[in-house]
Amino acid sequence: MHAQNRAGEERYMKEKPHGIMFHYFHDDAAYKRGPGSLSAEDLERVIRYCQETYHLLSADEWLYKEKRGALDPRDVFLSFDDCIRSEYEIAYPVLQSYHLKALWFVYTSVFEGELEMLEVYRHFRWEMYGDMEAFYDDFFQTALCEQEALHLDIRDVMDRFDPAEHFRERSFYTDRDRMFRYMRDEILTEGRYNWLMDQLIRKKGYDIGANRRYLWITEQELKKIICTDGHIAGLHTHTHPTFTAGLSRERQEWEYGKNREVLERILGVSPACMAHPCNSYNADTLDILKGMGIETGFRATMGDGYTSRLEYARKDSTDVLNEMRGQKDLCL
Question: What does pTM read for this prediction?
Answer without folding.
Answer: 0.86
